[in-house]
Design brief:
The protein is of the alpha/beta class. It has helices at 7-11, 24-30, 33-36, 46-54, 74-83, 118-122, 125-131, 143-153, 164-170, 219-228, 262-274, 291-313, and strands spanning 14-18, 39-43, 60-67, 71-72, 87-95, 99-102, 113-116, 136-139, 158-162, 173-176, 186-193, 204-211, 234-241, 249-256, 277-285. Helix 4 runs parallel beside helix 5 (74-83).
Length: 318
């Protein structure tokens, strides 16, 4: 993806990510040529990455924000909403593909123990039951740490469940590929920076946090009506406790469009006027290769609507 319209990305030299080497976050980052070219710095948690960007220790950060099976990543969302002032620069979507990794030359029928993060092991339950029904299971803090532990131990009877990047980093064999139960599982990541709002591409998202004016009947409806009235599509709606008092919630919303679009700007203006507060988390290019088609369709629809309105106005009597 080009960085010509994004000053945060153009000036960046360092990028933080959820480590260690070989995590899905690092794999997603390495799939983007401009991000892979930066000096990468691993951190122990998602909040650590975000605080490092906020405090200027690194220029950019990459963190997971949503998984198709597990849902939203609350540690990322809460830190963005309450603790730091950062702007999303773009999103990345990565397929969650699991593999059984072994030390070089280890036979599959010799495996007696499989280690990984428990959620990854759970996502490979069907394959493990069919292929390795009697093996013991061990827990690690991440799939990458599991791969690193297997490589360091050098025990041919112990395998790890991890991604292909981990196999590359730690010199392990892929004893079995695509062992996950849900091949369509995806994780969405966001790249965050401190200052810039990327230029609109025609295929964009905007993320905001809306704090209610008061917790009363119809308060959520009053927020949603602003989007419905302008035919703005919401792609995510999530309520989170504000951590101030019991029952006090705010709402994370993601919507199609860019703050440079007048209809989006007008919606945010009204929300800021009528609600307790609005925190802007960014307008940024949406993931996916359908962007050119979406931009073309949007331009055609805009031109058609403009022509229709011009024709109506031409009929007004002088």
């Amino acid at each position: 993806m080009s960085t010509s319209g994004n000053s945060d990305l153009r000036s960046a030299t360092t990028i933080g990510y959820l480590g260690p080497e070989g995590t899905f976050t690092e794999q997603a980052m390495h799939g983007e040529a401009d991000l892979a070219a930066l000096q990468s710095v691993p951190f122990a948690s998602m909040p650590d990455v975000l605080f490092a960007v906020h405090e200027g220790a690194v220029d950019l950060g990459v963190v997971p924000i949503e998984n198709a099976i597990e849902g939203t990543v609350n540690a990322t969302i809460d830190t963005l909403a309450f603790d730091v002032d950062l702007l999303i620069q773009r999103e990345l979507v990565q397929r969650v593909q699991h593999n059984l990794l072994t030390v070089p030359g280890a036979p599959l029928d010799g495996i007696t123990k499989v280690v990984s993060i428990p959620v990854a092991t759970a996502q490979c339950r069907t394959w493990l039951r069919a292929q390795l029904p009697d093996v013991a299971q061990g827990a690690a803090n991440s799939t990458a740490e599991a791969a690193r532990a297997v490589a360091e131990a050098g025990d041919p009877s112990v395998a790890a469940i991890a991604n292909l990047r981990a196999a590359e980093v730690y010199g392990l064999d892929v004893a079995a590929a695509d062992i996950e139960d849900h091949p369509e599982n995806r994780t969405r990541f966001v790249v965050v920076g401190r200052n810039a709002v990327p230029a609109p591409t025609g295929h964009d998202k905007t993320s905001i946090v809306v704090y209610q004016q008061a917790d009363r009947p119809g308060s959520l409806l009053s927020i949603l009506q602003e989007f419905a009235a302008r035919a703005i599509n919401l792609t995510l709606l999530l309520s989170r406790p504000t951590k101030t008092s019991l029952g006090d919630y705010c709402f994370l919303l993601e919507l199609d469009g860019h703050i440079a679009d007048e209809v989006v700007a007008d919606c945010l203006r009204q929300l800021k006027t009528k609600q307790g507060d609005v925190k802007f988390l960014g307008s940024y290019p949406a993931a996916g290769d359908q962007a050119p088609a979406v931009r073309s369709a949007a331009d055609t629809a805009t031109d058609d609507a403009a022509g229709w309105l011009d024709d109506l106005r031409s009929r007004i009597d002088d």
